[in-house]
Amino acid sequence: MRIVYLYQELAFWGGADRVITEKANYLADICNYEVFMVTTCQNHPIVFPLSPNVKHIDMGINFYEQYKYPLIKRIFIYLKLIRKYRRELEKLLKSIKPDITITTLCKDLDVITSIKDGSFKIAEAHLAKEFVRDLHIYKRKSLPYKIMGKILSCRTNRAIKKLDGFVVLSNSDAYNWREIREATVIPNSLPFYPSETSKCEHKKIISIGRLEEQKGYDMLIKAWSIVHHKHLDWEINIFGKGTLKKRLDIEIEKEGITNSFIIKEPVQNIVEKYIESSFYVMSSRFEGFGMVLIEAMACGLPVISFDCPDGPSDIISDNEDGILVKNGNIEELAEKICFLIENDEIRRKMGEAARKNVKRYMPDVVMQEWILLFKSLNNAK
């Protein structure tokens, strides 16, 4: 089978980049499929290494250049670039002749269903419906942006209806899409399941994610300021970088928690950091799935998360392998962090349950669902 993955740029230490890379590598190395990773413009080094069996093709069409200009000029530049992108992508797909072409709901969604290259077109969503293509941001801006957001939303829904397959990460998100079309639920798979696990004894807590609004670290800072005054000997380590770094540093200093709320650069040996910790906290406003939750659980950590849309409620069995907190409730988040700090035995037993329960996300289990989807399309053909 020949498969093409379309992605903007494999350049971020985020869950989506890791998941897509791991999936492409599995299909190429384990399934022996012919896999092509086609990026729009790879401006930076690829963070998570692609297998030598995955063929990487970069189209070199830099959509980022439009953001240097005011809104009206940006629209004209975008239209020019998207026309060029469609021409080049059609030429490329007709030369590759894939059986399956996969989009991740980026700009390629605007053109992919109109390209008649003979391949089945599948989209996979890595964010909940409300947040796909940054639609939530358009809603908060001025009237011209709101109009653009509505147009983009209509175009997105129309394109998704035309696809041959549509995959989401959680049952709740499938429910959100029900009025547009039926979605197949296939969760992300574990990138690792280490033999060594955390003993949940260190006075350290961990959180991982980009320093952006989505991850809710402003709320976690407020929650930690409550926890810190009760448990001065504990610390929380955040691994990530992003545009909000300076603003978060100011908030940390303002709350007087600079010695216990520590932001660190992303690291490659993240498994070691999980194992050095006693539990994981996720304060996201929204997620597509919550990759870091299953990674932490694989390392034997219990997890605490806001019950945000979408993913955590699919992953966490509340009070068994982790704790779900009402979305955005900072006081409850602080209370549950204190609860796990103060109850060593419960923390340890939750970590054991997490390690056991997360096996349902092992790659061989999850990737079989993808293979069945591909085969069902080919059989229909």
UniProtKB/TrEMBL annotation:
One of its GO terms (molecular function) is transferase activity. This is Glycosyl transferase. It comes from Bacteroides sedimenti. InterPro entries: Glyco_trans_1. The keyword Transferase applies. Keywords: Transferase. The keyword Cytoplasm does not apply. Residues 201-356 form the Glycosyl transferase family domain. Pfam families: Glycos_transf_1. It comes from the Bacteria. Gene3D superfamilies: Glycogen Phosphorylase B (3.40.50.2000).
